[in-house]
Specification:
Elements: E1 17-18, H1 19-25, H2 31-39, E2 43-45, E3 48-49, E4 56-57, E5 64-66, E6 69-70, E7 78-83, E8 112-114, E9 122-128, H3 131-138, E10 146-152, H4 158-165, E11 180-183, E12 190-195, H5 202-209, E13 214-222, E14 225-226, E15 235-237, H6 240-246
Parallel strand pairs: 9-13
Antiparallel strand pairs: 1-4, 2-3, 2-5, 5-6, 7-9, 7-15, 8-9, 10-12, 10-13, 11-12, 13-14
């Protein structure tokens, strides 16, 4: 048997990940719990017990077993949630606040949020257990547009909107990609912003750089997926067309808050 961490001869690796991540991807446990299971000698690769969570494996080529049984085939999950205010985008919170996981249906395999919305931000949040899908949606290479409605402390002036369209440099020197910005004609404190990247708290940081803090932040859409009539706190499955478009298999339209 081939020892863990060594490449298979004559085989092309598909996607090597650490053993701990492999277990989390397949819904066995969270990354932290997977480390505990591996350290406890409960996981084998190609017939060898492995106690190093950072061992590299290719789930498509390596025989990974847990408790003597091979990793189960976990169906792919793709969900959209209308996140309400006052819940955090984490699995658990040390301060005892409600989390987005409290709103998910029971019986799901391990899934993770695709990007984040902070405590007070609302709107569209995606979940999946497909890491390649998540990386494409959140990474700048995917160029997936994220659309927000923003309420500001003061009216947005056209010169500031133009600066965002040209690629704003945040406090600290980080340059953002050009954003789409349109000012509401009825209330210049409201604007629509479209970005194709997801730097941490990017929308809020952009307006903080302009000296005009965000009062409310609501995400309307991610690529072809929009909230539609999805009620606050509710969840729906993505359609095949939405998944294909976000995966780069079809055309689509328009994170982190």
């Amino acid at each position: 048997m081939r020892r863990p961490g060594t490449p298979a001869r004559g085989k092309t690796p598909r996607r090597r990940v650490t053993l701990a991540r492999a277990l989390s991807k397949y819904g066995i446990a969270s990354r932290a719990e997977a480390r505990r299971l591996i350290l406890g000698g409960e996981v084998s690769v190609n017939g060898f017990t492995v106690r190093t969570p950072g061992t590299w494996v290719d789930p498509a080529l390596d025989a990974v077993t847990f408790g003597g049984k091979p990793l189960p085939r976990i169906p792919r999950v793709y969900l959209a949630m209308h996140k309400p205010p006052g819940v955090v985008t984490t699995r658990s919170d040390e301060r005892g606040r409600g989390t987005v996981y409290d709103l998910l249906p029971e019986g799901l395999p391990w899934i993770f949020p695709v990007g984040r919305l902070d405590l007070d931000s609302t709107g569209l949040l995606l979940f999946t257990n497909d890491t390649a899908f998540g990386e494409r949606v959140t990474g700048p290479a995917g160029k997936v547009p994220k659309t927000y409605i923003v309420l500001l402390e003061r009216p947005l002036v056209e010169s500031d909107a133009a600066a965002m369209r040209g690629g704003l440099v945040l406090c600290g020197g980080t340059r953002c990609l050009p954003a789409g910005v349109s000012i509401d004609r009825r209330d210049a404190r409201r604007c629509r912003v479209v970005i194709t990247e997801g730097k941490n708290r990017q929308i809020r940081r952009m307006f903080e750089t302009l000296g005009n803090p965000v009062v409310r932040l609501h995400r309307l859409a991610i690529g072809p997926v929009d909230l539609g009539d999805l009620r606050e706190g509710k969840v729906r499955e993505l359609t095949r067309g939405e998944i294909a478009s976000l995966s780069g298999e079809g055309g689509g339209r328009g994170e982190n808050g």
